[in-house]
Amino acid sequence: MKKLTYFTCLVLAACNTSMKKQTVITPPTYPITDTVNQSDDYFGTAITDKYRWLENDTLAQTAAWVKAQNAVTESYLANIPFRNNIQKRYTEIWDYAKYSAPFKKGENYFFYKNDGLQNQAVLYIQAGLDAEPKVFIDPNTLSKDGTAALAGMSFNKDNTLVAYGVSQAGSDWKEMKVMDVATGKHLPDVINWTKFAGAAWYKDGFFYAAYDAPAKGTEFSKTSESPKIFYHKLGTKQKSDVLIYQNTDAPLQYYWPQVDDAENYLLIGISEGTSGSSILWKELSSGINGDGIMELFGGFDYNYNVVGNIGKDLLVQTDNGADNYKVVLVNPAKPAIFPQVSGKLFASYLKNASSRIVQYAETGKQEKVIELPGIGTIGGFGGEREGTEIFYTFDSYTSPSNIYKYTIATGKSELYRKSEFTVDMSNYETTQVWYPSKDGAKVPMFITHKKGLKMDGNNPTYLYGYGGFNISLTPGFAISMVPFLEKGGIYVVANLRGGGEFGETWHKAGMLAKKQTVFDDFIAAAEFLIKEKYTSTEKLAISGRSNGGLLVGACMTQRPDLYKVALPGVGVLDMLRYHKFTVGWGWAVEYGSSDKKEDFDYLIKYSPLHNVKAVEYPATLITTADHDDRVVPAHSFKFAAELQSKHLNQVNPVLIRIEENAGHGAGKPTSKTIEELTDLWSFVFYNLGMTY
200-202 and 205-210: which strand pairing? Predict the structure, then answer.
């Protein structure tokens, strides 16, 4: 590696003349990022990787580069005259009590509440719905800066103990602790190096999945491989836990343990990626050991999820033979039967990307369609078999989350807790439109704005998308969008192929060799908005996070002329090396892998890092975080360096904002959320010619 110099800068002489009515900010001066002589051979094609050294997140030079880049970004943002006004507005509208729907465990009800500006929501317990709530777990006490967050919990069979996870600084890693529900006292049991799976209680302990401890300094970048299923007996050390299952021949797999409600079986879910799964099972009566483990569903061509049981029969949700999924009854040992029981099944459907709920008897007979308050998204509808009530949330793009109580016997819903959000959203409306993509397919998107807004092609517009991993974007309230809507902005969410809005067929239409279809859908959405006079190129911002960050990176490099602002957040931007870090290998089922020639041939065509040219790109603010061990920050580091190296004589800024002590997004404290939103929206407002 050459000697690294970070602070040699080139001053850009050009001024942004498109903001005639604003204070003109001098274009930023970028730190020069040194290069290394690195080239890799992909099936006879040499690909240079001159910023490979930025993949080393513990290198002192990387830390210096991060500091220099953040200084440039902060200098630019600090010159936006209304930045403080935006931060003040976010602080004002965020400051109201937010509740989750209650859930019942045993005789107790639990719910989350954030008083307004608390960094983390607090978990409360109450002996009955009319009883005084008491603090059960307050994650705000677990760190000085509010970056410790709850990461899942599981109650034992009699609901006297709870195992819960704690994530630090947004990492996927979590530490598992055990607490007595009645006394609130912690047991000495602590489990480390777990991620993505919780505790599956059985008798006086629980099953869990864990990894070997990574070497110091590699915690947030090393490939997570070779998981194991253990059984932990309460009162013992983790090192004494019983190994139940591992597959040394397949180190790149995810595991998650499950015990059915009747405690008949240990179930082990296995996946080789984010799509497709298999399930192993064993009779728990045979002992707490690795003996007798058998395959229930094999291969990884379909998805299987055990959602409950009826006696010794398992209720399994699957897309095997049903692209839009079905629920089947399976007995691991003998043909399925349908016993008569008193429980109910609540099935959640999507119709044109919004929620529907249908109540069934456990025999599979439909009983009623649950009437919802409108077109939007529901959460909840979970409960215990003997329960008489269910709580759920409902929200939409123009309606904050309200909590409803559903009484099973009467089939009636009633408002349980109304949102305390103070901004009047009745002046806004959402419509759903369908637009043609490049191949002629019709794609839906939701458009939200002030009622009566004139469509003259001059409206600031924020287009958001994801398009991957079978994830559906459904109507949901976002406090973050309110300041933009208040100033006449249009908020657009496109339901791209690759998502799950219309089942597995829709998903598969945007994965692997068909991934370009997702980008075509997003580009077509932008073209439609311009053609129909919602907005114009000079007033259009595009945004996406994670896989959506890839979406923005690909679309801005393919059509840099189409947008004014681009916001790739925590994105997968190096498509040739993504699978070499932490859990990136699990995305190969969605993207393909550069280790295969047929996959490399299409990955290289859209990989954002490898398609940067010396052209004028939109005003770009890349966001990432130093503890992101889902999509490692090296993706964003290298993309920013490449863009800046090709952008030295251009007008629009290309900046990167690197959050410290934060991860991919989950568990981010309120203070950091408001700071990030302030910077993002200050950047958007300024570069779209808006003020606040």
Answer: antiparallel
